[in-house]
TrEMBL record, chains A, B:
NADPH binds at K105. Residues 355-432 form the ACT domain. Its cofactor is a metal cation. It is an enzyme of class 1 (oxidoreductase). Pathway: Amino-acid biosynthesis; L-threonine biosynthesis; L-threonine from L-aspartate: step 3/5; Amino-acid biosynthesis; L-methionine biosynthesis via de novo pathway; L-homoserine from L-aspartate: step 3/3. L-homoserine binds at E190. InterPro entries: ACT-like_dom_sf, ACT_dom, Asp/hSer_DH_NAD-bd, HDH, HDH_cat, HDH_CS, NAD(P)-bd_dom_sf. One of its GO terms (biological process) is threonine biosynthetic process. The active site is at K205 (proton donor). NADP(+) binds at L9, G10, I11, G12, T13, V14, G15, G16. It comes from Aromatoleum tolulyticum. The lineage of its organism: Bacteria, Pseudomonadati, Pseudomonadota, Betaproteobacteria, Rhodocyclales. This is Homoserine dehydrogenase.
Length: 436, 436
C-alpha cells in the first residue's frame, strides 16, 4: 500500500527521537499500520543539525511553511513548541487539508479551542497524545478506553522536573534551591525552569486532560496554578510523619456547578500507588463512575518516550486519514456539538482538605482557641502533631490535617487563627487529597 | 443519527453491569459515540432474571441463536463464557455479519485464531477489551497506544482472586488454605476456584496479551502454568526479608528464538510499583524499546469495571461499524498477513533468576559444597540468608537468590544440590524477575 508522507517541523530532542524510532522499528510499525510511514520533509532553522539527524533521505529546509504547503505531505508533525510560529504553522497545515500530530501542550491548552474548531471545519485530525505525560497513552485512555464512564476526577504527576525535585528533597532532606541546582546539572531541569517549577507546564497538561475527560472547552486561563518554589522541606518531613507524601498534582474534578482545575503541591496518603511514583516519572489517576480508580504510569518526557506517543498518533492518523470523519474519534472525545459550556470554578470554591502548620506560643489554652475557630467554621480535624517547645523557647509548632471544606471557608478560618495574638506570623497551608 | 442495536448474550454479573452503566451514562456515552447505543435483545436461560434486569424495553428470549440471527442487531455482546455454546454463537454471529464484543478470555485464548480468521474473512470486528484486566484499557494500550514500540516484555497481576489471597497471606501470615476459605466467604473466590488458583485464568489473559504485543498467534496450549496452591507462607516471609514480594504474574517476553509465555508465583523487588498492587486489584507492566516501562492499574473484575470495557468496545465498534476494514485496528494489533509464526519456548528455555530454599545439616563445608555446584553451573548468587539452627536441631534453612540463568541449567544444578547427603528433601524453587 502507498506510503504515508510525513513532514516534520522541528528536529530537536523529540524530533530526533521520532526519526530514530520510526527508522529502527520501521518493520514493526509497518506490520501494524499496514503501510509504511515515512518522514519525507524536515524543517528546522538549524539546517546543519537537520542534515545530521535526518540524513539524505528527506527534503531538508529551513522554511517550515514550505512543508505545510507541500502537496506530497499527508501529515504534519509539529515539534517546535510555544504559541508563536507553531500556531501559525498548525493553522496553515489544517487550512491546507493536512492532518496534524503535535506534542505542543502550551499551544493546545491556550489556543486549542480555535485549532480544533478549524480542524473540525476542514475535516482533518489533530492528534496530541505526546502533549500529556510523554509515552503514557493517557489521551487514548481518556478519549476511548474509558468512554463508558462519567469521569469524576483525575489527578496526575505530569511534570517530571518537579517530581524529581520533590523526590530528592524528601530523600535527602535538602531545600528546594539546592535540589533545583542538582536537577539543572543532571539535565532534569532547564536553565530557565520557570514553566516547570511554577506549575505552568502541569497546568497546560491538566487543562487538556480536563477538556477531554469532561467534554468542556480548554480553559487554561481559568486554572489555578501554584508551583513548588515556596515549598519548605520541613513540610515534607511533617507530611511523612503523618503518613503522607507531597506531590505536585494537576487535578481536575467535575462538580454539578462547575469544573475544578488546579495545580499545586498536594499531600496524598503514602500508601497510594501514585504517592510512590519517584524521580522524573509521570502517573495519572483517572476515576470513572463505572471503572473506579485507574492509574497510568511511565516516562513523561525524553526523546524516545515522547516519540512513542508521536508515532502512535501517526499510526492512528494513517489508519483513518481517508476515512469519513464520523469514523474518527472526536478531537476532544465528545462530538463537537456536544461540548458543554461548564466553567472552571474559582479556587475559593474548591472543596479539599488541608495541612496547616503554625507557630504558636507554648502556653495553656492556645490549642483550645485554634480548634474553637475551626469548629465554628465547621472544619473538623483529622490528625494533629504538636511539637514540644525546644529548650529555652516559648514557641512551638502545631501541624493539623483537616477534613474537607470549601476553600473560602478554610481561608476565613485561617485568617481568624492568624489574628490570634498567640499565633506567630503566617500559617503554612497545603491542600490534601485522599484520591480514593 | 440512527441508534446502534446491541444483542446481549448472558445477563449475569457483567451483563447486568453493562445494562446498568449503558442506561445510567446514556447521555454521556451518546455525546461521545455520536449516536445512541441500545440493548434491544437479551438472551439468557434464566428468563426471569433477564426480565428483572432488562425490564420491558428489549426483546427477551432464552434462544441465543435467535439473537445472533436477528437482522435488527448490529453488535452481539457475548457474556456467556466458556468454550462450548459461546464459541458456536460467536462464530454464528460472525457468519451473519454481526460485530462481536466479548469478555471471554478462555474462548479467545483457546479458539482465538479460528475466531479472528473468521471475522477477518467476513469483514467484521471482534473486540475484547473486557477479556483482560477488566476495566483497565490494556488491550487498547497494547494494540494502539504503544504501536511505535518493539514490545520487549510484559508482566501482569491479572487475576484478582490470587492477588487477594497472596496479599492476605503476607499481611496476616496465614497459610493458603485458610485465606482461600476467607476469599470464598467474601466472594473474591468462587466455590470451585481451580481456574483462578491454578493460574489458568491468568494464562488465558497472558496468552491474549502476548499475541497482540508480539504479533504472534494465540498459543495457550504452549503456555507454562503454575498456580499458587503449593506456595508456602514461609517463602513470602523470607522474600520480604530479602526486599521482595511474591505475586502471581502472567509474563510474556519476546526473544529472537521465540516467546516466553508463563504464569507462576514470582518474586519481584518490593520497591517496584507493581509489587505494591494489593487485594483484588490488577496491574500490567509493558516494556517497549522506545517508551521504556509503562504500567496500567485498576479493577480487574466486577460488574461495572468489566462493563466499562465492554461499553468502550461498543463505542469503538459503533464508530467504525460502517467503515472500511482498512480503517480499523487489526484484531491482533498487526495486519492479519503480518502475524509471525514465532513459537512459545519450552519452560526449560526460559531465562530468569531464582529463589531457592533448602534444609541442610548445620555443619562446616555444606555451604561450600552448594555454592561450588552453582558456580560450576555458571550461576552466581545475588543474596543469601542462612538461618541459625534452632535449639536442639542439627538442621537449618538456607535461602539464596541467584542471578539469571536458563531454567534447564538451574534444574540441573538444583538436582545436583538435592543429591548432596547434607541436603534434606526437595529444594523449594521460585522464579524471580527484576522488571526493570
Amino acid at each position: 500500500m502507498k506510503a504515508i508522507n510525513v513532514g516534520l517541523l522541528g528536529i530537536g530532542t523529540v524530533g530526533g527521537g521520532t526519526f530514530t524510532v520510526l527508522k529502527r522499528n520501521e518493520e514493526e510499525i509497518t506490520r501494524r499500520a499496514g503501510r509504511p510511514i515515512r518522514i519525507t520533509a524536515v524543517a528546522d532553522k538549524n539546517l546543519e543539525l537537520a542534515r545530521k539527524v535526518a540524513g539524505t533521505g528527506p527534503r531538508i529546509t529551513d522554511d517550515a511553511f514550505s512543508v505545510v504547503a507541500d502537496p506530497e505531505i499527508d501529515i504534519v508533525v509539529e515539534l517546535i513548541g510555544g504559541y508563536g510560529i507553531a500556531k501559525e504553522l498548525v493553522l496553515k497545515a489544517i487550512e491546507n487539508g493536512k492532518h496534524v500530530v503535535t506534542a505542543n501542550k502550551a499551544l493546545l491548552a491556550v489556543h486549542g479551542n480555535e485549532i480544533f474548531a478549524a480542524a473540525q471545519k476542514k475535516g482533518v485530525m489533530v492528534a496530541f497524545e505526546a502533549a500529556v505525560a510523554g509515552g503514557i497513552p493517557i489521551i487514548k485512555a481518556l478519549r476511548e478506553g474509558l468512554s463508558a464512564n462519567r469521569i469524576q476526577w483525575l489527578a496526575g504527576i505530569i511534570n517530571g522536573t518537579t517530581n524529581f525535585i520533590l523526590s530528592e528533597m524528601r530523600d535527602k532532606g535538602l531545600p528546594f534551591a539546592d535540589v533545583l541546582k542538582e536537577a539543572q546539572a543532571l539535565g532534569y531541569a532547564e536553565a530557565d525552569p520557570t514553566f516547570d517549577i511554577e506549575g505552568i507546564d502541569a497546568a497546560h497538561k491538566a487543562t487538556i486532560m480536563s477538556a477531554i475527560a469532561f467534554g468542556v472547552p480548554m480553559q487554561f486561563s481559568a486554572a489555578h496554578v501554584e508551583g513548588i518554589t515556596a515549598l519548605d522541606s520541613v513540610d515534607i518531613t511533617y507530611a511523612e510523619q503523618l503518613g503522607y507524601r507531597i506531590k505536585l498534582l494537576g487535578i481536575s474534578r467535575m462538580r454539578p456547578e462547575g469544573i475544578e482545575l488546579r495545580v499545586h503541591p498536594t499531600l496524598i496518603p503514602a500508601k497510594r500507588l501514585i504517592a510512590n511514583v519517584e524521580g522524573a516519572m509521570n502517573a495519572v489517576v483517572v476515576h470513572g463512575d463505572a471503572v473506579g480508580a485507574t492509574l497510568y504510569y511511565g516516562k513523561g518526557a525524553g526523546a524516545e518516550p515522547t516519540a512513542s506517543a508521536v508515532i502512535a498518533d501517526l499510526v492512528d492518523v494513517t489508519r483513518l486519514h481517508t476515512a469519513d470523519p464520523e469514523h474518527r474519534v472526536p478531537h476532544l472525545a465528545f462530538q463537537p456539538d456536544q461540548v458543554r459550556d461548564l466553567k472552571v470554578l474559582p479556587i475559593e470554591e474548591v472543596i479539599t482538605s488541608y495541612y496547616l502548620r503554625m507557630r504558636v506560643e507554648d502556653k495553656p489554652g492556645v490549642l483550645a482557641d485554634i480548634t474553637r475557630i475551626l469548629a465554628d467554621s465547621g472544619i473538623s480535624i483529622e490528625a494533629m502533631i504538636q511539637k514540644e517547645a525546644p529548650e529555652g523557647s516559648s514557641q512551638t509548632d502545631i501541624i493539623m490535617l483537616t477534613h474537607e471544606t470549601v476553600e473560602k471557608n478554610a481561608n476565613a478560618a485561617i485568617a481568624k487563627i492568624e489574628a490570634l495574638p498567640v499565633v506567630q506570623g503566617r500559617i503554612t497551608r497545603l491542600r490534601m487529597e485522599n484520591l480514593q
